[in-house]
Amino acid sequence: MTASITQFRHSAFIAIKDVRLQTALENATGRFRDARAAALAELPDAEEMRDHLKTIRANTIANLAEHLETFERNAIANGSQVHWARDALEAQQIVIEIAKAHGVTLAAKSKSMATEEIHLNHVLQEAGITPIETDLGEWIVQLAEEPPSHIIAPAIHKTKEQVAELFTREAGRVIPADIPTLTAEARRMLREKFLAAGMGISGGNLGVAETGSLVLVTNEGNGRMVTSLPPVHVAVMGIEKIAPTWDEATVWLSLLARSATGQPLSIYTSIITGPARPHPGPLPGGEGRGEGRDPDGPREVHIILLDNGRSKLIGTTYEEVLQCIRCGACLNVCPVYREAGGHAYGSPYSGPIGAVISPLLFGLEEYAALPQASSLCGACKDVCPVRIDLPRMLVELRGEEVQRGLLPWWEAAAERGAAAVMGNETLMKVAMGFGRMGQGLVGKDLPKLAKKSFRKMWEEGDIGY
Amino acid sequence: MNPPKRIALFVTCLVDQIMPEIGVATVKILRRAGYEVDFPQAQTCCGQPFFNSGFHAEAARLAKRTIEILEPYEAVVLPSGSCTAMIRAEYPHLLEHEPEWHERAKRVGGKTFELSEFLVRSDKVISDEVKSDEVKRNHSSLITYHDSCHMCRLLGLRAEPREALTNAGCEIVEMTESDRCCGFGGLFSMRMPEVSRAMTEDKLRRARETGAEVLITADPGCLMQMRRVSESANQQIANQQTANQQLTINNYPLTIKHLAIVLEELTR
């Protein structure tokens, strides 16, 4: 996936002309935006809490290696298996190897941006393993064969009518565009998948180093099913999503759902600390069940810690972006995202945070349009729970594009020329004089120069009181 | 704030070359408030367009030049929130690796003010007789105010423009998301014209929903962008009117004005 200026403009244009998409996007982002504001207003100390979380995240990233090692040690002590993946390819291979070792043909997935980032579904399919998304939004976009268009609401661009069409096709019978009916149908169809899956795949909202626990935040309970019903659970989590202790994790969780959906907490907060424990006595349900372990929970838990370009940001001007907790609040207030939609970004990460991390993680050349896809309005920074200065980073990335010669040569030449002219008032006056003479000849889209400039009026002394 | 006597007008490129009437209005307002206004003629561009598009060396040269020109004055006033933000908030950033310039940037930034901010803080906005002039108040139109991004977010100026307008006799009716970007963003409007235009249309729709006849902004960039998009919309409305179609809430001509123009008109 890439995003050149032409690709972004084209995709955004299609989104802008799509009335259904615009309505769905505007309504949903507007609801999230208002709900976030209300949820933060409920807290007596929301601003202090944001500052606190910022400090926590900054300190954690500053000592990330140490916290990751603590996490690994404690996770292993709980019986989890920890894998380190340098890049997407390594992460893919680890998942496939685990799946092959257990003869998995069907994998139930809980919503995970990290697995989107490594294009896991595609790789699983190629290896003969069918991935089924079980988050409602993710499942909708999977049925539509589209990537997610929002960090926390993957199908934000779809209306209920479009969802009904997709479900009708999947179920092979007409399903009406009524939300309770649609969710009941999804529940019925997905329940079969949970029971049949040989492996559950999840992401990780955060890992807590002091206990080696993985925390999953969902609203549908599918995360809990994915991580408890299938015999093997594989979690893919970015290396930056570590909280050293539960004290820190608590602050993180207090702001995550509030910033994302405006909920004080998501409906489900699942804490996974290793696979099913050994069970000393006889098991309910008869002999031979559970192999001497608790009947609930997977036999194996694998945690894949994904770097994929993150560690190289440490110590750079972009380190702050690793503080992101993926709440998606910046998307909901971004006027560009709210018009262009998520797909224009050509990356699983869209909106302001996507415009910064996609070029940083996946390449500035490939995602050259994204730093330009902003009016630098700053609304993202205002709502970010950790106050990441995304506008500043967009400007920095634009600077890198200039240095690496990624702008069209004529554009760079025009900018440098204009800057040189503006560096001298006489040159500027001459240039503007030519501009006045020539402006009838050029496009009517350019702003029209006034007959007489302000400085000319001033020189002539005709301003008055 | 101790009101300075002699102030510099930094008029901004867009006002100088495209909308000089805003500069004229600014000078008149300041003179009526008792200030001696100077226009340092060496001034050109604050460098913001270059800074925002990643030409940081070029922007730094313009920043230093502007600092030198503005340093001699007690105060600098601009009819633009975003250029004020460039000088006050971004110059120190841009020059942070050059300690001497960084200090000079901070000093100049400390005495640089957006027009309505300057008027409200120096409490000279409008004389009391105007404030209590009910006749004028009754004749003023219902207006709505667009918060320009850098002015409200980088400078925190939300109350000041409203106070200046209200003091002058305007009645403000707020639009939803008054601080949602108008779609200008400098070169952004040329690089991504479709998205930019869609953003502007959204802004104009929100302004129209208030029922206000006049949409006011304190930024020449926003003004230019909103006018450009609104003119074609107004043209369509005019065509519809001739076809005898009804005007609706989303569908009536909107006048878009700079804050300085409105203040000047109301303080004559």
Describe the structure.
Among the domains of chain A are: 43-278 and 294-311, NagB/RpiA/CoA transferase-like (Rossmann fold, 3-Layer(aba) Sandwich), CATH 3.40.50; 410-460, no CATH class. Chain A is 50% helix and 10% strand. Chain A is built from 20 helices and ten strands. In chain A, the strands form two sheets. In chain A, strands 1-10-7-4-2-3 form a six-stranded parallel β-sheet, sandwiched between helices. A four-stranded mixed β-sheet of chain A has the order 8-5-6-9, sandwiched between helices. In chain A, α9 (160-171) packs across α10 (179-196). The longest helix of chain A has 24 residues, at 19-42. The N and C termini of chain A lie far apart (60 Å). In chain A, 47% of the residues are buried. The mean pLDDT of chain B is 90. With 268 residues, chain B is an alpha/beta fold. In chain B, α2 (20-32) crosses α15, α4 (56-70) crosses α6 and α5 (81-94) packs antiparallel against α6 (99-110). Chain B has two domains: 6-119, Rossmann fold (3-Layer(aba) Sandwich), CATH 3.40.50; 127-266, Glutathione S-transferase Yfyf (Class Pi), Chain A, domain 2 (Up-down Bundle).
Task: Write the H/E string of chain B, N to C.
Answer: EHHEHHEHHEHHHEHHEHHEHEH
**Radius of gyration of chain A, Cα only, in angstroms?**
26 Å
The fold-level CATH name of the domain at 43-278 and 294-311 in chain A is: Rossmann fold
Q: How much helix, percentage-wise, in residues of chain A?
A: 40-55%
Overall mean pLDDT of chain B stands at: 90
* Mean pLDDT across all amino acids of chain A: 94
The arrangement of helices and strands of chain A along the chain is: HHHHEHEHHEHHHEEEHEEHEEHHHHHHHH
Structural class based on helices, strands and sheet pairing of chain B: alpha/beta
Please give the number of β-strands of chain B: 8
Indicate the percent of residues in helices of chain B: 55-70%
Shape of chain B: globular
